[in-house]
Amino acid sequence: MKKIKIILSLFILTSFIGCTSDDENVNLDNLVAPSNISALMTIEQDNSGKVTITPRGEGVTQFEINFGDGTTENAFVSPGGSIQNIYDEGTYQVKIIGLTLNGKKTEVTQPLTVSFLAPTDLEVTITTGANLTANVSAKAKLETYFQVYFGESATETPVDFMEGETVSHTYSSVGTYQVKVVALSGGIATTEQTQTVVITNLTAAPTPTVPASSVISMFSNAYTNVAVDTWRTNWSSATLDEVSINGNATKKYSALNFVGVEATTTPINASNMTHFHTDVWSSDFTQFKIKLVDFGANGSFGGGDDVEHEITFNAPAKDTWVSLDIPLSDFTGLTTKAHIAQLIYVGAPSGNTTVYIDNVYFYNQNATLSTPAPTPTLPAANVISMFSDVYTNVNVNTWRTPWSNATLQEISIAGNPVKKYSALDFVGIETTSNPINASSMTHFHTDVWSSDFTTFRVKLVDFGANGAFGGGDDVEHEIVLTSPAQNTWVSLDIPLSQFTGLTTKSHIGQLIYSALPTGNNTVYIDNVYFHN
After folding, report:
1. What is the pLDDT of residues 119-141, one digit of tens each?
2. DSSP 360
3. Strand pairing of 83-86 and 508-516?
4. Rounded CA gap, 364 and 328, in Å?
5. Order of strands across the sheet with 167-170?
6. β-bridge mates for residue 114, sequence order
7. Smallest Cα–Cα separation from 130: which of 220, 219, 239, 244?
C-alpha cells in the first residue's frame, strides 16, 4: 500500500511541475498544511447502507479516507470527488485526511450514523442576518445528514449539510418564506420540520455626521462611548444580543416589552446638550417609547430627586432605519439633565417585537453640514434617477415651481452637488415634459439633512394618461415623517406600496417636499431616485 501511495504522490508531483513554465520555481517548502477539512456524508434511502463521502478542504492536493468500519486499506479521493462505502447499522468515526505535495497533512475525525429507522428529536435553528440572509443548522438522533429547502422556489434543489454545520442562503427579496429541513437516515422514512421565516433588508444604520465635539455617545462606532453599566438590567423584559450588521456593532432586542439601560456608576451630564438621538429598526413594532431618567444629585434611583419623561412614537416606519432625533426640551418632565442614569426602551406589541438599536447619543445641535450624503450603491439598471451624481438623471423641468414657498440654492458639499431649500414651507418639483414611468419600480429614495426640521413630508403626484394636472385622472399620496433625525443625513427609502393613494405610477409628474416648522427650517436634498 505504501508503494501505491508513493507512486501516486510522485505522479501528482510530476504532473504539477510539468504544468509550470520553465521560469517558474515551485517551492514545496512554502506549502502550508491543508485547512477546513470536513466531509459531506449522504446515504441512500433504500436500507442498503450505501454512504457517499465527499471530502472538503482548502489547500488540498489529495484526500485520504479511513471509513472507520475496520477496513484496513484507506481510500484516496481527488479534490471535488466522492467515494462510496457500504455500512451496517451503527455509529462510525470517519477519518478525513487532507494532503499536500510536500507531505504536510491535516486530519479530522467526523462521526457517521447509519440507521434504517426514521430520525428522531429533530431540532432546527434558523437565524436571519443582514442583507436578506438566513442561516440554518440542525441536530437530531439517528440521522446521517440533513437537507434544507429555503422556500424561495417550488422547484429548488435542496442543500445537503451535516450536523454541526451552518448553511446560509441569500434571498432575492424581502418576504415571508417557509423553510423546510429534512433529516435523512438510511431508510425510506424521514423526519422534517418547517418554520416560517421573515426575511428583511436590514443593513447597517446610517453613519452619524455630527462632530464628535458636540456629542456624548452611549453607543456608536462613530464616536468614543462613555461608560454604560448595562444595556439590559436584570428587571428588563427582553432578550439582548450583540450583533454585527455589515461590520457595524448593533444591539438586538428580541421579545421586547421593556429594557433598561443604565449608566449609574457615571451618570451622564447632558445639561449642555440639546437633543437625544437613537437609530431604531424593526419589521414588526407598532409603537416605540423612549424614557430618560435623571437620578438627581444623589445619583441613586428613588432618592427623592429623580425626574423622568417618556416620548411615544406611534406607527413608526418598519423595515427601515428610523433615526429618532428628539429635542431634550420635548422631555418636559426631565427638569434636570445633569445626572441621567437610565434609558428605557419600550416596544409594542408587548413582548412580541424585535428591535435593533444603534447610534445612541446626546448632542448639541450647533453643528454644520460638512459631509456629503451617502453614496448610492444600487445598480444603475434598477434606478430611475432625478438627482444624483452616481446615476444619469432624467429630465426634470424645475426643482422649484413658481407656486413653491421656499428658497432654492444649488450648492456643493465636499464637491458633491446638493439642493438647499431655505425657509421651507413646501416646494414643488416637476417632470411635466416627460412624466416618470415608475410602474416597474418598488421604492422612492431621497437623502435629507436638516438641523431644525421637526416634520418632513414627501408627496408624489401622478398626472394620469393625459399628462396634465387637474385632468380628472390625477392620483397622489403623501408620506409624513415625524421627528426626523437632525444634523445627520437621513436616507429615506420608501416602498411605493406605502403611497396607497398613488394607484397609478406610470405618469409621475410632480414631487412635493414640505416641512415643519412652517417656513422656518432649512433642508438639504440629494440622491432623489426611484428603484426596483
Report:
1. 999 999 998 776 788 999 999 99
2. E
3. unpaired
4. 10
5. 120-128, 133-141, 167-170
6. 90
7. 244
Give the chain's length. 532
Residue in the structure block whose three cell numbers are 433504500: 46
Sign of the dihedral through C-alpha 248, 254, 258, 259:
negative
pLDDT tens digit sequence for 389-426: 999 999 999 999 999 999 999 988 888 999 999 889 99
Closest to 331 measured CA to CA, from 343, 321, 322, 323: 343
* Cβ-Cβ contacts under 8 Å for 518 (sequence gap 6 or more): 425
- What's residue 24's pLDDT? 53
**Bridge pairing between strands 105-114 and 75-77:** unpaired
Quick check: helix, strand or coil at residue 5?
helix
Please write down the long-range contacts of 238-246, taking CB distance under 8 Å and 24 or more positions apart. 238/347, 243/356, 245/129, 245/130, 245/202, 245/203, 245/204, 245/205, 245/356, 246/130, 246/131, 246/203, 246/204
Question: Tell me: the pLDDT tens digits for 171-220?
Answer: 998 888 999 999 999 999 999 999 998 787 788 899 888 877 788 999 99
* Cell numbers placing 153: 422556489
Whole-angstrom distance, CA of residue 429 vs CA of residue 510:
6
Is the CB of residue 209 less than 8 Å from the CB of residue 371? yes
Greatest alpha-carbon pair distance for the chain in Å reads 92
3-state secondary structure at position 141:
strand
Question: What does the block give as the cell for 507?
Answer: 405618469
Measured distance CA(60)–CA(103) in Å, rounded: 11
Find the Cα–Cα–Cα–Cα dihedral 292, 294, 300, 301, rounded to 10°.
-50
Rg (CA), the chain: 30
**Distance in angstroms (rounded) separating the CA atoms of residues 216 and 282:** 25
CA dist 313 → 201, 288, 290, 330, 482 (Å):
22, 5, 9, 13, 9
The verdict on whether omega for the bond into residue 517 sits within 30 degrees of 0, i.e. cis, is yes
Which residue reads 484507506 in cell numbers? 74
